[in-house]
Design brief:
about 5% strand; signal; about 40% helix; Multihaem_cyt_sf; two-stranded antiparallel ribbon; about 200 residues; mainly alpha; single chain; two-stranded antiparallel sheet; Cytochrome c domain-containing protein; binds heme C
Length: about 200
Amino acid sequence: MKMLLIILTSVATLLSAALFTTAAQESQTPAPMAVDTAKGLPEWDMIYAVFSHPRCADCHVADDRPRWSGAHYGGTRVHAFNVRRGADGSGFGNPGLRCTTCHFASNSSALHGPPGAENWRLAPAEMVWFGKSSAEICAQIKDRNRNGDRSLEDVALHVRDDKLVAWGWAPGADREPAPGSAEATYQAIENWMAAGAPCP
Ligand code: HEC
Ligand code: HEC
């Protein structure tokens, strides 16, 4: 009987210790960031203007065909030459017609010659922006299951530092560049995050 009492007492002590720890941990978790839509949405609009721009969205498509769109192409259509994502899903195209057959590390200087940047390829299909609304693109960017498992800070750094992204502001041969700059878009993402990253 005495033994049982001792066991019961120690179980109770352990339990209350466990409860106490949980409570202490909970009180240490920071409160969720306040969302300031008045500050955040204008920042998002700048980000959206870039991501939805043809120089970005033409590589971020849901199907397996890059797009040609904007004034330089005289409208919107699928990439000529029956170019595809590639049966292996890599985005580098099918064997025999790889992107790098035509797209090199830098832009062709010829008007309507192939533009270029290192590792030219289609973005994975889940990172789709072409034909998507502002709200849809916003949801995609924030979804780690669809953005290459990135935090928003990682997304911002990708925009600031990636070579394919940089091409969008130096697209060569008469193509209109994406609005602003890589640095300004990076800053807009930082400001948007600081405002709680609201979506429209
Ligand atoms: C030549 C094709 C190409 C162009 C042009 C391009 N991208 Fe991408 N993009 C990719 C590929 C490929 C990935 C996947 C890379 C990875 O996950 O590491 C990607 C991934 C991304 C990601 C991370 C994933 C996500 O959904 O958040 C961001 C952000 C991004 N691109 C922004 C841009 C912006 C902004 C532009 C235009 C200024 C642009 N991209 C133009 C091919 C392209
Ligand atoms: C047979 C050659 C060839 C192949 C292969 C090829 N491209 Fe192109 N691509 C071109 C040419 C030429 C242009 C420029 C056309 C123009 O300026 O009128 C171009 C332009 C582009 C553009 C620019 C669109 C814009 O918004 O300005 C993208 C994006 C693109 N290609 C993606 C790809 C991807 C991704 C692959 C591989 C899956 C690929 N291309 C394979 C020849 C090719």
